[in-house]
């Protein structure tokens, strides 16, 4: 049996989906926290839909920390995968490089579980990001 490395999987991936599931320690304003806005449920909905449409070989999905759009409910970032890896650079520089090198990154916000099949079908299958869920990227 051949073993497939993480690098091989990453190189075969067409899209990367990051779902913010961050839970804030200070819950003074709980509606502005992805965890409290259903981040884990949205993450699971993406996993379920990706499995249902048999896209696991083309779409990598991960839970992420804060995507800096807390006012937008649960936030999801989708971008085309690339071989570049900037993990050795400081976080701030990594973010700037990704913005320059991955201009096709899309942020979605204010999501509900029932929105996920449309996003997967439109963006991840057909390559047409649905505008109605998009929020402004920084």
Explain this structure to me?
- There is one protein chain.
- The protein is of the alpha+beta class.
- The protein contains 4 helices and 5 strands, in the order αβαββαβαβ.
- Strands 2-1-3-4-5 form a 5-stranded mixed β-sheet, with helices on one face.
- It is globular, with a radius of gyration of 15 Å.
- The model is unreliable at 1-11 (pLDDT under 50).
Query: Which consecutive residue ranges, at least 5 long each, have pLDDT under 50?
Result: 1-11
Number of helices: 4
Record the strand order, biggest sheet.
Answer: 2-1-3-4-5
Average pLDDT rating: 80
Radius of gyration over all CA atoms, rounded: 15 Å
Number of strands: 5
What is the ordering of alpha helices and beta strands? HEHEEHEHE
Spatial separation of the terminal alpha carbons: 45 Å
Estimated structural class:
alpha+beta
How would you classify the quaternary structure?
A: single chain
As a percent range, the share of helical residues equals: 25-40%
Please describe the biggest sheet, giving its number of strands, its sense, and whether it closes into a barrel: 5 strands, mixed
* Apparent shape: globular
Strand content: 15-25%
